[in-house]
Structure formats: C-alpha cells, structure tokens
Give the backbone structure.
Amino acid sequence: MDHLFRPLQLGSLTLPNRICMAPLTRCRADRDHVPTQLMAEHYAQRASAGLIIAEATMVQAGQSAFQTEPGIYSAAQIDGWRRVTEAVHARGGRIFLQLWHGGRACHPLINGDIEPVSASAIAITNDITHTPEGKANYVVPRVLHDDELPAIVALFGQAAANALAAGFDGIEIHGANGYLIDQFLRDGCNRRTGPYGGPVENRARLLLEVLAAVGVVWGSERVGLRLSPLSSFNSMGDSDPIGLARWLAERLNACNLAYVHLIRGDVLGEVQGDVLTPFRQRYQGVLIANLHYTAAEAEAAIAAGQCDAVAFGTAYIANPDLPERIRAGAPLNTPNPSTFYKPGPAGYTDYPFMTTT
Ligand SMILES: Cc1cc2nc3c(=O)[nH]c(=O)nc-3n(C[C@H](O)[C@H](O)[C@H](O)COP(=O)(O)O)c2cc1C
C-alpha cells in the first residue's frame, strides 16, 4: 500500500497520506443547524485521514434538505464548527468544509413553507424526501431569475469567509449529486435560455462565479470542487456527460484549485461510462477520485496515475481509523445504514477502533 501512504501536496498544505474522508451528511447538528460536540468527537476520531472533507453544509437559511444538517451562515454555527476544527487539529488532522446549496432538493415542509429554487421548473421524481410530516414527494422548484444569481454567489462567498473564521483548512464547493450548482451544470435539469443556460459555458457560469468568489476569500489553492457528471441521483442527467467532464477539466486548469474531487460513476448504477480517464487526460491539477473503491483498488489507481488520492465514504462511516486499518491489512467494520441519518451517537461515534495487541 505504498502509494496510499505517500504525502500529497495541495498548494501549501501537505497531506500525510492519500486516504481522504468523503463528505458525509449525518444529520447530527441541532435544529438550528448548529454543529454539536458529538460532531467534534466524530471528526476528531477520523483525524488520521489525509484530508477530512466535512459534510454538505448550508450556505443559506431556509434551504434545508435533511432537517438537522449543519449550516455556516450564523454566528452560532461558526462557533460550533470552530469546536470541530479545533478538535481535529488537536489530533493532528486537516479538514475542509463542503459548501452546499440544495436547490430543488429542499422541501417547503422542512423550511417554513419557503419554496425551493433551481435552474428550471423541474422536480426530482426518482426519490422521496423526509419531512416533519412524514415522507413527501419533492416539489417543482421556483426558477431563479438571472438577476438573483449574484446573491447566490455572494452566499457562497460569505459562507467561505465564515468557514475561514471557523478555522477550516479549506473548502470544497459541492458541484455534485444533483444540488444547486449541479442543477445548473447538467442539461437534464437546466433548460434555461440566457447567460446561465444552453451551451456548457453558460451552464458552468454559476459554478465558475462561485469558484471566483470563494477564491477571493481563501486563495484558490485552498478551494476544492466536487463533481459527479455521471450520477443519476436526484433525477439528474445530461445529454453528454463525458463532453461536460472534458470541458470542465480543460476549463478548470485555469482555476488553480486545491483539487477536483470526481465521483467516477453513478451511485444508482443506471448510467455507465468512464469519466475518470478523460478527466485525468485533460486536468493538470490534483485529482481525488471516489465511488466504490476498495483499498487495493485505490492503491492500484494511484500507482497507475489514474488519480492522486481516493475519498472513501461508507468505509469512513464505520472505520474511524481507516488508514491504520489499511496499513495493517486489518478487517473493516461494517457500516449500519439504519443509523446513517439518525441523530445521536449510535452508529456515529461508537464504531470500534482497531485493537492492537
Ligand atoms: C450517509 C451518506 C451521506 C452522504 N453525504 C454526502 C454529502 O454531504 N456530500 C457529498 O458530496 N456526498 C455525500 N455522500 C456521498 C459520499 O460522499 C460518497 O460519494 C459515497 O458514499 C460513495 O463513496 P463510497 O463508495 O466510498 O461509499 C453521502 C453518502 C452517504 C452514504
């Protein structure tokens, strides 16, 4: 497992290994979306990751998709996150925060009747959501006008400043998994005309404006970006996902980002294709790959130059000491899906560490 344990440089930040913790929404914040002490413990347990990418975090009030996911728009949330970053740093770790706007994945019943917004008036239909009143279908979102988009960009800029104040080492922009930025990127969901619709350079405009705004706050070399061109989760699709990935790979070279974090396939398994190879051929920066990697496959992928690091999702839910286990060739704990989104310590901070004899 040599390659997984080689240091990796992200701008001025050195990762001691190439095993990253993928962003994982776990719904352990409080009802005001304030990060809790339990979250500080959870992330501190995972401080041996090369990089922790903390979960999708709301940049705006009234745009909740999961009820007790965290935010980074209030002073209390900044204080809560500061406890998390201090706990991770005290154990020698590094932590980025994933900045997120849910767009059409938010539901009025979770948000005091506030309507969700999106690129076009198209609802998510391949899933249901959970609200205080039980399971519900997603609703048709309100279309954001072009002149509302500078305010969305500004929300990301403010959230980036708040993340800096909270002591993070960097931020990741959530451009994946069918949330607002992705809703603009992919033409199955973006049917707009005008400067933010139509050809890919228009559909990518919101993303590029957000990257520029947060780069002013952080310096672009502390900004990562997550993309999932092939994913059909949240009713997403594109008429040319590989073309989209190629275009983004070439365009992002000019952005001098910390990394691009590419979900290599479709988590629902409905869309097939290789997006990693064309992206790697065109993108010159650090590339983190994700989705269904075993440690052995991750090692082989890095050794073959397919990516520079691998992010592990579900393996990190159940294995706080994942790098130590990989290095030792030890068995992994099995994650329990029934506690993935269930508030409380069960299935969150109580997965056992490897015992050494
Ligand atoms: C419980 C759970 C929560 C997740 N939350 C997020 C999230 O907040 N942001 C995100 O980009 N992806 C999220 N994902 C996707 C994971 O980051 C990752 O892409 C997925 O688990 C696939 O990686 P794996 O095969 O290593 O598990 C989540 C996945 C799970 C299972």
About this structure: The first helix runs from residue 37 to 45. The chain has one domain: 3-33+48-312.
